[in-house]
Each structure stands twice: as structure tokens, then as C-alpha cells.
């Protein structure tokens, strides 16, 4: 079998790259380890930057997002009960879209299925070969039968635990990492959101986030120790803890109910460099991880593949290598700025086990500076709504 671009992974990065390339007449094959239902069953991101919305429109999958997504002009920070709203539209004339990653993935999957482009779900033992030559190959097993896919390029969109980054010789790649001493326990509940916009809460007991998926479905998180077990958290225990970390008004208006999903996600910052190895390119979580505090993970994956798609389209149109040669440096510059913002948001909003009174005063000063300085607030707004691609 042969194709132009072999894409490893059918998460948002792989599916969006596939759409952008197929729309430009460039044939792709996506190899995904899991089933479609499994991929759709993962509950993850919730906030889209305007740049991501524009890319999804360009991919031709924006209809349901514009119909069901919620435009948010800002967010609220709550520091030990003090609340302050940051109005992004007033500060910098930009907004964000609340539309769950599950729905983005569903829209991309449906468009790909309708186009007839080939996706091999439940492909096993994917391995990458000869990507340091101009004849790269991918091998995989499907239903017990071995296959080989010859291609021009391989896009490693297979996430943090994928095979693509692991296939790069150790001496050819550097990684940078910070693992945080806590995780996020998240629940999904079919109850109206407690507020119109997201509330990021700092409290001495730990961070909490009030988010949403629609006017009738909410998403909440509380910071938990890294060794916490989700089975030790009943719904009642979760709601009690959330109420203690937010302001009184929010606690009073919280509409609680049975969780329909409950899971703990670890928090880490991670970047691999470079992101191009001959005919292999890394994009999305295969290339980087951010703590979800800044709502950057999904958005970075989208901006990576937007740049990679343009580079590959240019190569096939003009045989020009300029875009593919410049891919790694270009996306890494934006990745590191998103890493900085996500680390900063995580640092000011979470309670660190080894913290001291000086560090807690600095966190409070960060909040006081943000709410008293328009310049500081504009910087927050610029980063949260997404830096230029
Ligand atoms: P993904 O991990 O989504 O997709 C990679 C795909 O590759 C998967 O479908 C996987 O099955 C497949 N794959 C892996 N190995 C393979 C192999 N060997 N062969 C074939 N396929 C293979 N971001 C936010 O902005 N906000 C959040 O709240 C948030 N919460 C998160 C919670 C969790 C538990 C996790 C893990 C991430 C969260 N993220 C969040 C980040 C998340 O949204 C990612 O940034 C986003 O999924 C990145 O998309 P992809 O790069 O496509 O990677
Ligand atoms: C979510 O709704 O899942 C969400 C929103 C904002 C974040 C992280 C997660 O920063």
C-alpha cells in the first residue's frame, strides 16, 4: 500500500492534519491504535482559541461548533474567595470558544469518514522505518495481518505515549520536562454550569476549576495529590471539596448531580526538540505536553498541524522544502511561549506541597497585580486567547 502522508494517531492533531491535507488534494492514511468509540470516550479539553476555531473552519468542520459552541468574552479568577473577572473582549478584542475536544474529534472523524479517506482503527504494532531516507515506511498489524505502508512523509500525531517520538534515535532528540506534584480530578455532570464563564479558583486547600461543555453539561476539577485514587472520591466528597475552594456565592449556586465521568489526569510540562527528523514530523502531544491550567494542549496541537499542513501543501505544490525545513523552529517558538504561560498559570493557581509563606504571598501578589494593572490583565488575555501562529 502507498500514500503521500502517513499519519500516526486519530486524536485531534492527526484528524485535523488529515482534513487539511485531504482538502488540498493530498492523500493520507491514518493509523490509530484504538477504536473510534475509545477515542471519542476520552474526556479532555474544553476551550478553543480563535486560531483553532479558524483552522476547524478551514478544515470544513466548523458548522456544529458554531451552532453549539459557547463564545466566552472572559474568565474569572477567585483567590481565597476574592473574585475578579478578566474581560478579554474589552482588554484585547478577542474571545474563546467553549466546545469540548470530544465534539471536535467527532466532527473531524465524521468529515473524514464521509470523504472516504482511509483510517485504520485498532491498528497494532505500528512501527516507523527509513524516515531518514526519502522512502519512509510504516508497518502495522490489522486483524492479525501484517501490512506495510510506503509514503513520502510520516506525521507523528500519536500523543505523549506514542511510537513516533520513541522511534527517534536517542542522540537525535532532546527533551525538557517538569512534573508537577499534583494532578486534576475531573468530573462531568449533566447539570447547568454554576456561572456564565469559567472560574479558576486558588485556595489553600488546592486549585479548583468550574468549566462547562454546554448550557446543560458542566465540567469541574479539583487539584489532588499525585498518588490519589479516583475510587476514593465519591461524588459527595467531590462536591464538598469543590464548595470549600470557591467563593461563597459560587458554592451556594452549585448545581450538583451524579457524575457521568470521573478521572484523574497528571500534570506535566514537556517539550521535545527538534520536531523534524528527515521525513518524520512530530505534532501535538507527541511533541509537547502542557498542564491543562492554561487550556493550551488541544490548541497547540491544532496550531502545530496548521503549520505542518501548510508546509506539506507547499512542498507538493512547488516542490519547495522551505516550509518543511522551517517547521520545527517555527512551531517550537510558539510551543515554548505556551509552555511558559501554562507553567505560570499553574504556578500561581495551585497549592504546592513544599510551599512556604513567602511563596504564598507571591501568589497573592500575582493576583493583586493582575486585577489592578490593565497591562498585566492584557498580557493574561493575550496568552489565554492564543498568541499569533
Ligand atoms: P492525543 O493523545 O489526543 O491523540 C493521540 C492518538 O494517538 C490517540 O488516539 C492514541 O490512541 C493514538 N496512538 C497512541 N499511540 C499509538 C500508536 N503506537 N499507534 C497508533 N496510534 C497511537 N488539554 C486542554 O487544553 N484542556 C484539558 O482540560 C485537557 N485535559 C486533558 C486530560 C488528559 C487525561 C490528557 C491525557 C490530556 C488533556 N489535555 C487537555 C490535553 C489534550 O487535550 C491534548 O492536548 C490533545 O488530546 C492533543 O491531541 P493529540 O496531539 O492529537 O494527542
Ligand atoms: C475543560 O473544560 O476541560 C477545561 C477548561 C479550561 C482549562 C482546562 C480544562 O484550562
UniProtKB/TrEMBL annotation:
The answer on whether this UniProt entry bears the keyword NADP reads: no
Instruction: Offer one example of a GO biological process linked to this entry.
Output: benzoate catabolic process
**Entries under SUPFAM superfamilies matching the protein:** FAD-linked reductases, C-terminal domain, FAD/NAD(P)-binding domain
Q: Name one Pfam family in it.
A: FAD_binding_3
Arranged from A to Z, the UniProt key words for this protein are: FAD, Flavoprotein, Monooxygenase, Oxidoreductase
Using the record's annotation, list all stretches that form the FAD-binding domain: 2-342
Query: Is Flavoprotein one of the keywords UniProt gives this record?
Result: yes
Name-wise, this protein is 4-hydroxybenzoate 3-monooxygenase
